[in-house]
Amino acid sequence: MDDFLHNIQKNSPFYKKLWSNSPLDLSKLPIIDQEEFWDANDWKDNTLLTDSNRSGVVFKSGGTTGRPKFSIFTKAEWHEFTKIFGESMDAVLDDGDRVANMFYSGELYASFLFIEKSLEQSKKETLTFPVAGSTSLKEMVKIINDYDINVLAGVPTSLMALAEYLLSEKIELKVTKILFGGESLFDDQRPLLNKAFNEPAIHSVGYASVDAGHLGGSMPHHSSKAHKVLDGTVMQIVDDEDNLITKPGVSGRLLMTNLTRTLMPIIRYPVGDLAEWIEPNTSFLILGRSNEGARVGPVTVNRDDLGSIFLQLEADINFQLLIERIEGKDLLSICYVGQVDEAKALKLLLAQRKMLVDSIEKGLILTPKFVKVKELEKNARTGKLKFVVDKRF
């Protein structure tokens, strides 16, 4: 660990500055500020990466069209990432499974390629069918039938759309297992999946992000929110004062240190979720979004997405994101104190986030709204403003 941290401090200007007054002790190093992290990870003037020789693979990691974010892996890191995650998928795969990969591809999105390569690295004897989330529902059904596919892997919103189509068309498929990822699966979604697919086994495919890497492995005999800590990672949970939580059942922000990545180091990085330990340093429950960003259906909305909109409108105001479940779909409300042209703000948001528009048009989520309020919700103990209020859990 000492050599690992020393090399990062030596070769990354960002970490060299961040750690200038800290001992190289993981538990004492500063927690990453995401805004500063992504400012440093600029494609043309980068101060985060440890090497100027970039050879590997690049993926989009959210951000606006004017300020895109990217995540880069060397070839070796990409192989190790998918190997560790693929082997963790053995917990939810069986020899002989035929798996339809229904995750999204294109426009530098990682999920489809990530799941495809992870499935290849699983030790189970499976057949993989790269269907992709953009395929029409009619064609999906044909492929699943033609090849006797029994496992569907995709984001819950896509799986729900397929389930609704099957029921409306009175079609039955011989699907025995559903593996979801990329967003939470809520209890109000399970009845429809059970009805459309005749009570399949439903499991998390695992827990990962293109920002951080392999965050956790599926635990099929526990809650679908439960995940195990994987090799090559140090997972930490901290309270509102950034103190380490070491007891089970106490909620806090989830941090990840990725020991397999050195080109774009991930050290004490807030992954954007709240969690609590089931067994400290071994397994944890995901409890919803923390202050780093909101996940609305398959779309991540970050602080700078909204900050840039208010900047364009010359509105210097405080705001927070409220996420709710309304009639089985996610609704994002941007709550603010002050004055803003709500129609212009929504137009700008949809113009810069194409995936939001696509998800609305497909009926996966509800149209976001801007809501003026008298005051924003704060942490009852610390008095700090909550950037995200997630009422879905």
Short description:
With 393 residues, the protein is an alpha/beta fold.
Please provide a written account of the structure.
The chain has 393 residues and is of the alpha/beta class. It has two domains: 1-220, ANL, N-terminal domain (Rossmann fold, 3-Layer(aba) Sandwich); 293-390, 2-Layer Sandwich (GMP Synthetase, Chain A, domain 3). The protein has helices spanning 2-11, 13-18, 34-40, 75-88, 111-121, 137-146, 156-169, 190-197, 303-312, 342-352, 354-361, and strands at 56-63, 68-74, 98-101, 127-129, 151-154, 177-180, 201-204, 207-209, 213-218, 226-228, 233-238, 252-258, 269-279, 283-289, 293-296, 299-302, 318-326, 329-337, 369-372, 388-390. The strands form five sheets. The chain has a seven-stranded antiparallel β-sheet with strand order 8-9-10-14-13-12-11, with helices on one face. Strand 8 (207-209) and strand 9 form a beta hairpin. The protein is globular and about 60 Å long. The two termini are 36 Å apart.
